Amino acid sequence: MKPFSTLSFLIALSVASPSMAAWQRLPSVSKRPVEMAVASMNGTKVASSSGIGQVQSLISDNPIDSSTLSAGNAEAVIDAGHQTIFEVASFTNDDTEGKVSISASADNSNWIAVGQAVYSAADRSISVNFAGIQAKFIKVQWELSKGGTIRNFQLFGGETDNDFAMSQNASGTGGETLNMAAGMGGARIIYAHPNPSGSKEKGVSYNAFEFPESDEKYRTVIYDLGAVRIMNQFGSVHSPRPVRFEVYAFNDLPEKADWRGQKSFDPAAFESMTPVAKAEDARGVGYIRVKPDHAVKARYVALRWEPDYNPPGFSIGGTVIGGSGFGKGSFKPGSGNGAGGGAGAGGGAGAGNGDGNGNSPANGDASNGGSMPGGSPGGLVSFSGSTGGFGGGGGLPATFPGNANDNNGNGPPIIINPPPFRSGGN
């Protein structure tokens, strides 16, 4: 028999299935943005609402929980419980169509309009980005030509998981229910395969991924929860197409490190394991929720999606790794500083490329076909010390379709404490 040459071996390796090659760890992040208006945080509540069914879902950290909106006008005022800096509002859309507007206030009385987006029923992921604004209350208003359902409503800004101390009791029962995948409690996304489109840093920060068209059977995201946790629910909000969903749990993740210390994971490990939970979105409704037969105790969790066919792309808008037995989130004042810079005296460009002179050109396209106006002209809102106009509307906080500009200017955030202002049209 002819010997198997080294060259033949290398060629065989080069054509091996990419799904069997070891996966490389994603870049690590020292902190993750967290949803800033969820019921598991002390003081957070819906202060008032009209025209919204299941309104408490707006302050749920479970992206699957939904609120219903009818055609016409609807609004909700969310009390964050303390002054903080907000930078973006987003949600997953199922069939609603119209306009969403965001306003901010320090006292639930004097309001400043900070951004809006117009979108169609075909737009799945909707986001309104604005220059960092300090407030205690956020008002969300919808003017809809078509009603439907929204889920995965989120507010992000200056607060990160480093600003909260979260602990779970030994039994994992009672207390608050927490979605550990959202970052509260120290969870990190360490693997995503196939290689997601767009910014990996945004994906691991905001727990949302766009997977490109691929011959791979599965789309996989692996989490390090930071500690052994007790879990009783899993799920996701994803592209609305039929998909099977599996959950795997590890106490020790089978990783290897190369000579540089770079860790990798061999997906062959799944072949010898049994999922701790599985479900199917057979109708392609765009979300899955599953409870395991018994509580799962582990540090590492892998979520896997198997689409019915290879789609042009498959997106994950939010995931659930749920557990009970947590206390209320306790904010540590002074440690959460927003990254968003308002265009103005400080010279920092807002999300929509504000020029530092109070002018924000209207190039901040929103997302998914929805239109986001550019920043308001300088002088729309007047503050002592003059921060200039609002930064233009940027894209989504994570890797959704759209122009995902960052609020990373060096100018000061807009402060409304007290809130002297004069209002004008957007």
Account of the 3D structure:
With 426 residues, the protein is mostly beta strands. It folds into two domains: 18-31 and 161-331, Sandwich (Jelly Rolls), CATH 2.60.120; 45-159 and 334-415, Jelly Rolls. The chain is 4% helix and 41% strand. It has helices at 6-14, 200-206; strands spanning 23-24, 45-50, 52-53, 66-69, 72-94, 97-105, 112-119, 125-146, 148-157, 164-165, 176-179, 188-193, 209-212, 219-231, 233-238, 243-250, 255-257, 263-265, 277-281, 287-290, 296-307, 313-326, 330-331, 414-415. Strands 2, 3, 4, 5, 6, 7, 8, 9 and 24 form a nine-stranded mixed β-sheet that branches. Strands 11, 13, 15, 20 and 22 form a five-stranded antiparallel β-sheet that branches. A five-stranded antiparallel β-sheet has the order 12-14-21-16-19. The longest helix is centred in the first third of the chain and has 9 residues, at 6-14.
